[in-house]
């Protein structure tokens, strides 16, 4: 995959494949092109080269809504919830992509509509249980603590019933206890029929959860292997792990922003 902004090559040759049940991490220093790669996969950016295939179908350059409805869900590096909506409604909003409700049923509040609304609420509650949300589900999403909001965003992405789930720095801004719970959640997502791709700076988490790791540096893929292989790769050590302290600083900074 390739993506250019003006003359800047944000993504300059990234290739990976991921299957259901796999957990793959994309790592690399700040500005390496990780989020840009997610934006290409999800249709937010149009790649200037290469292709994105979902179960054999070419989805390159389709609109974000079209890509989402084919089963690609994501979360954002900077949380994007509907702050004024309740927690539950945020998750139900994720599901409306696939619940094909009849507009007339909705208008007339037919029994069929009410049943489907009830089922949607039950399912949203199950996903909130799955991510371990503790906060008030009827509260406006923006009133929840940051770590809880991140869980709501993951629940919303899961409620869409994705085949491919992309999480952009899910551990950013979380405290130690929340990171431990996130690790457990990621393992449980790995047991669903979902291909999981993670962008993450927290090396401890990446090394524990990933089956495979792809390393980007200045848009270029410099390594692709198991955590053990990547950990020992000299190019990775130079480009990334040598700067691990910086990455930790960045995470700390993000945390202090919250
Ligand atoms: N919309 C845009 N317009 C112009 N340049 C962009 C745009 N989005 C990203 N870039 C550039 O593309 C490069 C890759 O950015 P990207 O956000 O993908 O990095 P990243 O690996 O996600 O970094 P971080 O770890 O800090 O989130 C950077 O040089 C960035 O400035
Ligand atoms: Mg990013």
TrEMBL record:
Q: Where is the ABC transporter domain?
A: 1-243
Pfam families on file: ABC_tran, BCA_ABC_TP_C
GO molecular function per UniProt: ATP binding
Q: Which InterPro entries match?
A: AAA+_ATPase (IPR003593), ABC_AA/LPS_Transport (IPR051120), ABC_transporter-like_ATP-bd (IPR003439), BCA_ABC_TP_C (IPR032823), P-loop_NTPase (IPR027417)
- The answer to keyword Signal applying to this record is no
Where does the chain cross the membrane?
none
Say which domain of life the source belongs to. Answer: Bacteria
What keywords tag this UniProt record? ATP-binding, Nucleotide-binding, Transport
| Name recorded for this polypeptide | ABC transporter ATP-binding protein
Q: Which source organism does the UniProt entry give? A: Dactylosporangium roseum
């Amino acid at each position: 995959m390739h993506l250019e902004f003006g003359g800047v090559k944000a993504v300059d040759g990234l290739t990976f494949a991921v299957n259901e049940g796999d957990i793959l991490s994309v790592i690399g220093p700040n500005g390496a092109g990780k989020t840009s790669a997610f934006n290409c996969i999800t249709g937010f950016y149009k790649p200037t080269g290469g292709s994105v295939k979902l179960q054999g179908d070419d989805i390159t350059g389709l609109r974000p809504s079209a890509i989402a409805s084919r089963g690609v869900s994501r979360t954002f590096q900077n949380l994007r919830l509907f702050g004024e909506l309740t927690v539950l409604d945020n998750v139900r909003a994720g599901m409306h992509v696939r619940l094909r409700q009849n507009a007339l049923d909705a208008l007339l509040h037919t029994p069929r509509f009410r049943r489907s609304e009830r089922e949607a609420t039950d399912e949203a509650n199950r996903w909130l249980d799955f991510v371990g949300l503790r906060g008030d589900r009827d509260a406006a999403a923006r009133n929840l603590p940051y770590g809880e909001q991140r869980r709501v965003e993951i629940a919303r992405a899961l409620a869409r019933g994705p085949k491919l789930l992309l999480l952009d720095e899910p551990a950013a801004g979380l405290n130690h206890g929340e990171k431990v719970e996130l690790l457990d959640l990621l393992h449980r997502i790995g047991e669903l029929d979902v291909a999981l791709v993670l962008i993450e700076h927290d090396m401890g988490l990446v090394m524990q959860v990933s089956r495979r790791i792809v390393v980007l540096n200045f848009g270029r893929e410099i390594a692709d292997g198991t955590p053990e292989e990547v950990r020992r790769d000299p190019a990775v050590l130079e480009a990334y792990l040598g700067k691990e302290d910086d990455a930790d600083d960045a995470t700390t900074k993000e945390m202090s922003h919250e």
